[in-house]
């Protein structure tokens, strides 16, 4: 059991209110918030959940959390999800688990977002964690070459020596970048590559972050956050 992740995740569940449409994130930190919400649902909380991955859908289903597809809801009240890295300006890298496309789509539909993490994820500058990018399998060798030519140090993510396949049937390329990452410039570069479908940079999207520490949690509010 990861105590820091668990305490941050359980704290985030306190922000969930009866009747909310809740986005459920993906990964080992989000796992604990979903487990907590499962307990709360068993004790009478009513929520409509929208999931960010097949793995989360399976977990939420096993806990009898009522689930809806993203197309069945008008919007999402609150998303709780993990991050791979986040800086003091609330800019994050996500997608270590390969779920970044759905995570970003759900994040964009969410009125409020809480990112949850252990204290190792809160960094002075982004770039220590490779930046995941979801790409189309069609023409992927050319997409990989193009990212090489842009000096972005790409590597195709593998699983059992085969390309890792996302829930959307696509591939992931991880970019091994220098710290600090020039995020805006990098996004412009990635947007110019046709085979790139989405990247794992989530800039200033959350309302607050909850950091699990040895002793309790730290909640940091994003003053620049404007609710949708
Ligand atoms: C999955 C993600 C996860 O939120 C991120 O990788 C953090 O995972 P964990 O909580 O297991 O460290 O973006 O695509």
SSE diagram, text form:
Layout: H1 3-13, E1 21-24, H2 28-42, E2 48-51, H3 54-62, E3 76-82, E4 85-86, E5 91-93, H4 100-109, E6 110-118, E7 131-135, H5 140-149, E8 154-156, E9 158-159, E10 162-163, E11 171-175, H6 183-191, E12 196-199, E13 201-203, E14 208-212, E15 217-221
Parallel strand pairs: 1-2, 1-3, 3-6, 6-14
Antiparallel strand pairs: 4-5, 5-13, 7-11, 7-12, 8-11, 9-10, 14-15
The chain binds ribulose-5-phosphate.
Ribulose-5-phosphate binds at residues 25-30, 81-84, 94-100, 103.
Question: How would you describe this protein?
Answer:
The chain is an alpha/beta fold and 228 residues long. Strand 4 and strand 5 form a beta hairpin. The protein has six helices and 15 strands. A six-stranded mixed β-sheet has the order 2-1-3-6-14-15. The protein has helices at 3-13, 28-42, 54-62, 100-109, 140-149, 183-191, and strands at 21-24, 48-51, 76-82, 85-86, 91-93, 110-118, 131-135, 154-156, 158-159, 162-163, 171-175, 196-199, 201-203, 208-212, 217-221. Helices cover 28% and strands 28% of the residues. It folds into two domains: 3-123 and 203-221, 3-Layer(aba) Sandwich (Rossmann fold); 131-199, ACT domain (Alpha-Beta Plaits, 2-Layer Sandwich). Ribulose-5-phosphate (5RP) binds next to helix 2, strand 3 and helix 4.
Features of the shown structure:
Rossmann fold; 228 residues; 15 strands; Alpha-Beta Plaits; four-stranded antiparallel beta sheet; single chain; alpha/beta; binds ribulose-5-phosphate; 28% strand
